[in-house]
Structure prediction request, 235 residues.
Amino acid sequence: MGTIINAAAIVVATLIGMTFKKSLSERIQHSIMLVLGLALAVLSIGWFMSDFLVVEEGGLSTRYDLLVIVSLVVGTLIGEKTDIDGRLRRFANGIEKRYDLPPVAQGFISGTLIFCIGAMAILGAFQDGLYGDMTTLLVKSVLDFITAMMLASVFGIGVMFAAVSVLIYQGSITVAAYYAGMFLTEPMILTMSMVGNILLVAMGINFMKLKDIKVANMLPALLVPIVYFVILHFF
Prediction:
């Protein structure tokens, strides 16, 4: 239920944001994306550091350094080989042509990555499925509502289609958590969160137009920690 509320919030926010799109000049749209990118990058760095740093024996130390690096490298290699970014863009472009819509690709991809990556998406869906606790997803829905309005004011209707990604992604985690019980351990969630926050930093960089990073091709990195801990469990 939490994921359905989350997706509905994105749809409503997109419709609201689109009403402001026509009244915003290109300069204002650019400024909005710059500020959104800066905020996303800074917040994601903070979220990453809160997971990455631990206090041990009166001092700071780090954890899962190598696993995070390997996850990013292996995941990006898989993503580049399978061209996830290109497939997503072709999918979105196909929708544009089929239904004669304005450009949706950038809004769809940006929205999908922002709404689906990060600790709240994973942990919230997990808690909803395992304990029936929607608290985290409700908080995420509020944050996504605000973000979706800002994105839609620049990218338009494409952001709305990201709600489908949220339904599939978070819904799958919720169902898996419901049937698999404690399969997703705390270390799995922690490392997936750290990798996800790095991907969000990359999204922030894209929004600020500092560098064009194909973040979608980095998505398989989220699955590498799961594979690692499953192998570690058996060996």
